[in-house]
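Quick one:
INPUT:
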């Protein structure tokens, strides 16, 4: 399937449809210095859309802010396209088409028609967020934002004062 025909409206429809977890027994696996859990999710609106959700944490010492979780749409032919990805603050993400860098901040990637048409990664555009600062907090935001039921999450406590800042 050519994803070039995806519009921002279609991407929004995929993100906003109600979804539920289908593999609650999913377990984390460690590979190449990361711990990762993969989930399967399906739309509950009769559209038969299928999705993959993952959460991944770098296990190397000092790399606690190197994490990511995301949701991909599984097209009918089996190809996948990342729709949204929630990253930690471990790197300075550049939005190449806008020629700006986000700094070392947590940020949320979202697939856009503009980046697809420019032959970039669909989700290469990102925006800074202060809604989370841990992988669990990022997963909580993803589950809420993408309307997924069946994955237990909890938000980060963002208003706590840090002792040694």
């Amino acid at each position: 399937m050519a994803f070039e025909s995806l519009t921002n409206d279609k991407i929004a429809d995929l993100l906003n449809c109600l979804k539920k977890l289908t593999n609650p027994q999913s377990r984390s696996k460690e590979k190449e210095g990361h711990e990762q859990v993969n989930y399967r999710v399906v739309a509950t609106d009769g559209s038969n859309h299928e999705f993959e959700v993952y959460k991944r944490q770098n296990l190397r010492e000092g790399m606690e802010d190197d994490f990511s979780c995301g949701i991909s749409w599984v097209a009918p032919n089996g190809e996948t396209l990342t729709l949204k990805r929630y990253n930690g603050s471990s790197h300075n993400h550049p939005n190449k088409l806008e020629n700006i860098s986000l700094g070392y901040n947590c940020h949320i990637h979202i697939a856009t028609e503009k980046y697809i048409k420019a032959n970039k990664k669909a989700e290469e555009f990102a925006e800074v967020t202060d809604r989370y600062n841990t992988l669990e907090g990022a997963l909580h935001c993803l589950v809420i934002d993408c309307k997924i039921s069946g994955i237990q999450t909890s938000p980060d406590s963002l208003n706590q004062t840090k002792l040694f800042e």
